[in-house]
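Why do we care about 3D structure at all? Because function follows from shape, and shape follows, mostly, from sequence. That is the central idea of this module. The next example makes it concrete: a single protein chain, its amino acid sequence, and then its structure expressed as tokens.
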Amino acid sequence: MDTSLTPEQDGVRRALRDLLESRCGPAELRAALDTPSGHDPALWTALAERLGLPGLALPETYGGVGCSVTELALACEETGRALAPSPLLATTVLAAPLIAALGTPAQREELLPRLASGALTAALAVDGTVLATALALTGGNGGDWAGGGRAGGVQARRTTDGWRLYGQADQVLDGHSAGLLVVAAHTGGYTRPRTLLFLVSGDAAGVARARRTTVDATRPQGRVHLRDVDARLLGEEEADVTGALAETGDRAAAVLACEAVGAAGRALERTVEHVGRREQFGRPIGSFQAVKHRLADVYVDVQAARSAAYYAAWAAAHGERAGGLALALAQALRAQRTASAEAIQFHGGLGFTWEHEAHLYFKRAAGDELLLGPVHRLRAHAAGTARLFEASGTREVRV
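And the structure:
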């Protein structure tokens, strides 16, 4: 792989950073978090109209830019750096690829151009506690995570007019505000159980939604109740839904690894700036050897995570699926947690205040691990996929 950025990739990053610095500063970020949706519609419109970000990795046939997931991941490094609150993850990283992969030609023609333009937002309605499982990031996704015929999750039943859904998902990214819900539902009962995906309008009869209070306010989640809701099947019944979810999980792991690296890098930058200004015993605390050593360790973690994230972005674009993508996400989440925790420590009492941004980076790190981890499960699944601890010949590796 070539580790250097192309002029187009570098241009996207620079343009996005300039836009976010002017439209998503600390004041704008806090104002967006207090809105009912949890993001700034004007910023989303600017990202769509000026940079085409929602359609960056969608085909030009459907109004997208036609870039690969690599460019999307590099762009998300910048959105992570700014903690930009937007429907980008739910719409562009999770929902749109599933519609592109499984949708019928008519469904793609109807939905993808609107998603690419930013006019329509979407959410993958899978409960947040099992999202990593559904995307095959922390284990196989062929189990009963969608409900399994028991209480919980969402159930689907066929009627003479189509499909009806009943159930709830409690932690859906942007589930409270998305215009379209891509709902994972269990069907077939005990005899022929399987998971299918369905399309549900956000304002359909029988849909009740509410925003939840979460650790990370920059990544809003909603509770979605479905009460005998009319739904359209996404694609065909014979489609490989679990395979499409796993492929989406690979792409999401690469994108989120880059996003986490962006947040970790920015937290480290702000910490270095602070220790260069804060004085103790008549000198900046950044001049103390102990401080230098700790921040050097954080820098090494962030750079190693960035290297792994860039490889994951390249590998996802080239169809590689060897467990390394989840491992890259694990390393990025660990670096994000370390950098944000050290940021609070080195900011001292200032780092704990509501007015400072340090706690937002720490909450993003905690929220990402709750949503997509934890790190040890990501690593365990990557090791299992690579068959790292299986017997080889007559010898067995033990840990």
